[in-house]
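Hey all, sorry for the wall of text incoming. These are the two entities for the joint prediction.
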Amino acid sequence: MLRARISPSNSLHRRLAASLKHARSASTAPAVKLNSVGKDDVAHFSSILAPTSIVSSLSTAPATEDELDQYNSDWIGRFKGQSTTVLKPKTTEEVSQILKWCNEKRIGVCPQGGNTGLVGGSVPIKDEVVLSLSNMNKIRSFDPISGVLVADAGCILQTLTDYVAPHHHIMPIDLGAKGSCQIGGNVSTNAGGLRLLRYGSLHGTVLGVEVVLPDGTILDQLTTLRKDNTGYDIKQLFIGAEGTLGVVTAVSILTPPAPQASNNVILALPSFKNVLPLFQTVKRELSEILSAFEFIDRTAYDLAVKHGQGRALTEEEVEGAECFVLVETSGGRREHDEEKLNDLLENLLTADEPLINTGVLAQNPAQFSSLWALREGVTEAVSKEGKAYKYDISIPLSSFQEVVDSTREHLRSKGLLHDKAVKAVLGYGHVGDGNLHLNIVADAFLPEIQDALEPYIYEVVQNLRGSVSAEHGIGAMKTHALPYSKSQVSIDLMKKIKNVFDPNGIMNPGKVLE
Amino acid sequence: MLRARISPSNSLHRRLAASLKHARSASTAPAVKLNSVGKDDVAHFSSILAPTSIVSSLSTAPATEDELDQYNSDWIGRFKGQSTTVLKPKTTEEVSQILKWCNEKRIGVCPQGGNTGLVGGSVPIKDEVVLSLSNMNKIRSFDPISGVLVADAGCILQTLTDYVAPHHHIMPIDLGAKGSCQIGGNVSTNAGGLRLLRYGSLHGTVLGVEVVLPDGTILDQLTTLRKDNTGYDIKQLFIGAEGTLGVVTAVSILTPPAPQASNNVILALPSFKNVLPLFQTVKRELSEILSAFEFIDRTAYDLAVKHGQGRALTEEEVEGAECFVLVETSGGRREHDEEKLNDLLENLLTADEPLINTGVLAQNPAQFSSLWALREGVTEAVSKEGKAYKYDISIPLSSFQEVVDSTREHLRSKGLLHDKAVKAVLGYGHVGDGNLHLNIVADAFLPEIQDALEPYIYEVVQNLRGSVSAEHGIGAMKTHALPYSKSQVSIDLMKKIKNVFDPNGIMNPGKVLE
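and here's what came out:
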């Protein structure tokens, strides 16, 4: 029954086929013809920018390919452009003049923040100008009373975190890449990260943006207001637009007060069926101090332990556990928070029909870190085990295990589940956000595995009304997969909106929309 | 110095004048010609809808003017349209067919929810068809695990609140009008209300919408996902569009777990200067359980007491108090919350340089309600005192008192502050949200008072980069004031977006954009 529900139905197959056909026919419309950067263009940029703000093989002090490479390649080495020219403006006015010129000359522009994205959104596809925001890194203002921070787009997330810390505030987002990702890039990709369950998405916490539109117009919506009902909330379009509508040059963002204390606990569950009632119980008992509820299936747990993570639970405690949950609290007073967490654990363990086999509460900061390391160590363990096909999807919480299991069965039915092909299918992720990381670990990347996985997984996601990209975005990597999560009506509207902002198609061409 | 900072500068005057001129010249472009509803149209609607879904003076069973009046008039009696025809569809498909027809025939459509708005957004200006969502009132689904509720647009907020209560969830918004306002209207006006400080705006809590576009196309973005980074977040445009881009027919919204306990305290402050450090202290000490921080100035307090609200503090305690603050907590465990609130009060009272004169903590539910009644009674007291000019503005927290005082001085300088003209100028509102309710109470509505207040107040708001409509919207009432809060670049983009969705201009004509 379950299998039937999540397998793509015939009618869906047809709907999707029609949708993809439509998408293809739309994309066969004559593409916008963009021009390459020439020496004249670089000479013009020299009249706008300081010499140190230009890295170009066409300038009078030509850059080497190596110098350009860090801007042309993404950090995982999957995407590589051939840009000849990188511009690093220092002011919004400079960005405006660059875009005005590129728009008139029909030169493509690829805005680039920390270049930490996962879908190739921040590197050029061909020879677009790379517009790096790295030199725009001033904090414009911080109001310790309201907690509103206004910062240039190129400010690094960690720098901002450090800046607000003495005022007892934190950034509403936190990412693994925080040491190099930039706030403008965070906003442009609508970064999710570890604090979303508690502080919500950037659509709620970003109060304003300053954007340079492709024709050079500066759109100043850099308000610091929490409430402003004066017309359409245009700034929202730039949150997650991946630089395809304009260049975000500054951001106004609401920073929450810092919690005074954090703690965590790992719970072993006899069955995935218990995850959902457990989530309800935990939400009810911990209420406003719950800050993470992370799921790790048994395969993921075993893999993390195999590849060196500390065993949080004894072998005996792990016996019979089908999956694990990591619960984190962040609150205003340590003794209250600990009392709540202790009571929760006691109630869970002494229940008539316990939802958990066992649980371990962190007793000190070292244990706190070690429990998180187990959860975060899954990624590393997967790389050590083999080659990984990774899917970052949003689906209903109730289908997490179902999707992992049915993917495994699907691969088995194709004869691909054995030592020389797929070694493991595992799931982990943010139950609280409905975000599952589905990993398929193989001995090697093989076309038959790829063909077995796609479009299979995208169809499963579509059938569950899920998202083929929960937090990473579309970039250059998933433009073909967009129809699995967005209807043709939505995609058509996106194209019309793109056309309103960027009629010449110079902004980050080839990203988001095909 | 302060006065100088918030008085409109000359350069601002010039900038605004230019902006208004531009706005006017744009509005002199030939307006879209819309047609009146005829008998043929009503006959066509009869082929789509059940007879009980049509209220029209042009139908075979003609409605009286009285029957139409409730749809033509807003509840405060300030706006009145002359619609002959009200349609009350029961399904999204019916809405689609109505809009398709109206779009082809160039008939204006005014979507109407509970008709509880404050800016005339939900009643027709001329004889547009009124499209009432009242018959679309089914709850489509509720997932008690994720807390995601999917409901027809016409569901009443209180009904939804009652529906999720047994699951220990609450709606993320709460309004005075909750007994009659509808969730589709809440979303279309981006309603703020009493819970914004705690749960954020609808831009964060609304996960998806179903919208019928003017040409009848159904845009299905009714996702229940917390995370979905697949292209532009188009649904955001409908949040706060006041029905000018399409008709919201269903909403998917995240409902938070219900708090287990609430409490409140009223604090008397010797000076407004103390409000801001107090806000910081309260945020730090109460952290995640702080759910309201409301400001009442002395004039507002005295007026509420004069007109019958219980005196929360003794005459002695009130002596020397320049303003008052109401703090509310909502948390997961009563004893913890009370301990935090008690400690806060003790720390405030025993500080070396106390920020407050005194404070009173509610000891039981009756006192809790009575403290809220004092805050909420200001509105009623103002109506009893005289005729009120009301401004719902967002400005930086630090300028709250300054704006109230400078408005009073401005009226005094015009010779209007005396018994036969302006009797009181007062301020109260949501410090936590930066939302000030500025009220000018007069003996009667007089043109010279109106002229002294506008554009003066709008200019002050503009100079502070504030919002001329924090939570009520623009509707029909404030289209002329939009340029004080939005730049011409923003307004031009809004017009282009309007044109993408509604090229024939049939949706709620005359609202938001002139």
